[in-house]
Structures are given as C-alpha cells and as structure tokens.
Amino acid sequence: VSELYSPTQARLSIAWRPIPRLLLAGEVAWIEWHRAISTIEVVLTNGSNNDVNFVVGSRNVNSELTLRFSNQFIYSFYTAYAVNEYVTLRFGLNYGRSPLNVDETGNSPSAGFVDINVSTGVGFRYDRFEVNLLTIYGVRNRVSTGNEPDSLTAKNSDYTSEQLLVHLGFGVRF
C-alpha cells in the first residue's frame, strides 16, 4: 500500500472548572483528509496461494482505489463530575460530518459514516488504583449513493451504520 498518509490536523481546546468537582471542556478540530487519503495503490507480488492466483489470473496484483475524502471539522463537548473522592462520572458529545464520499467508497457500511458520537463513562479510584469504563455510541446514520458513473457499487442505494464501543481501563499511580 502506498500513498497513504496521516492527515494534518489542527485543534483548539478549552477546559474550565466552574466548581472544583466539575470539569467542562470543548474542542474544535479540523482534519485534512483530502490529502491524506485520496488514492490508495495496492501492489501485491509473488502470490503463493494457487487459488487466489487462479482467480486473479496472475501471481501479481496492482490495484488503485480512489476515495476522495473530504476535509472535516469536528465539534466536541465533554464534562466530568467527581461524585466523591472515589467516583467520577463522564459524558461527551461530538459531531463531525463524515469525510467519506459514498459514491467513491460505496462498498459497505462503515463506522466512518457515523456523524454523531455520544460517550458516557464512570471511573473508580481507590488509593493508587483506578478502573474506568467508557461507552461510545455512534448514532445510526444513513447515507445514499447516487447514480454517478463512478459509483463503485449499488447505485441509488442506502447505507446505514451505527457503532457501540466499550472500553475498560485499569491504572496504577506510582
């Protein structure tokens, strides 16, 4: 795989504690996807799987996928509230219009189609030890492909995507 780069990013963040137990934070992020992921070239050589070589008709594969991602702004708001010295509750919300161009990527629903994420979490701290549980829900989103000639699959189709992620973390302070 060549021509795949990390996108340039710029972020502006702010955090404020209106009272000692409450943290409010916000962020605006800009991600320059269009230069990072525009065309991906895949080159495979000397394939050793006879079945794949038969289907492809060669031991080598050269393929190019044009994605044409758009740049993206993401707007985020987060809060954390310390219930007591042992328990902290967290909530977050972010919105960023998907950078994917469905008429170019059009292969299947992906977490990349999700525009809104809602996160909730709870942290438990005792002495030097900490346990954190975080859930992130990518709100169901629906996108439609057009009838353009470049659409890779299923012209005039609708795709939906949603996601649910659960993170569990353990920490020790030294």
Query: Could you say which structural class the secondary elements and strand pairing correspond to?
Result: mainly beta
Strand percentage: over 45%
Overall pLDDT metric: 84
General form: elongated
| Helix and strand pattern | EEHEHEEEHEEE
Q: Specify Rg, calculated over alpha carbons.
A: 22 Å
Question: Order of strands side by side in the largest beta sheet?
Answer: 1-2-5-6-7-8-9
Count of runs of 4 or more consecutive helical residues: 3
Major sheet description = 7 strands, antiparallel
Q: End-to-end span in angstroms?
A: 42 Å
Number of strands: 9
Low-confidence stretches: none
How helical, in percent, are the residues? under 10%
Care to describe what's here?
The radius of gyration is 22 Å and the shape is elongated. It has three helices and nine strands, in the order ββαβαβββαβββ. It has a seven-stranded antiparallel sheet with strand order 1-2-5-6-7-8-9. Strand 7 and strand 8 form a beta hairpin. The chain starts with 7 loop residues before the first strand and ends with a strand. With 174 residues, the protein is mainly beta.
Q: What's the helix and strand layout?
A:
Elements: E1 8-19, E2 22-32, H1 33-36, E3 39-44, H2 50-56, E4 61-66, E5 72-82, E6 87-95, H3 102-105, E7 116-126, E8 129-144, E9 158-172
Antiparallel strand pairs: 1-2, 2-5, 3-4, 5-6, 6-7, 7-8, 8-9
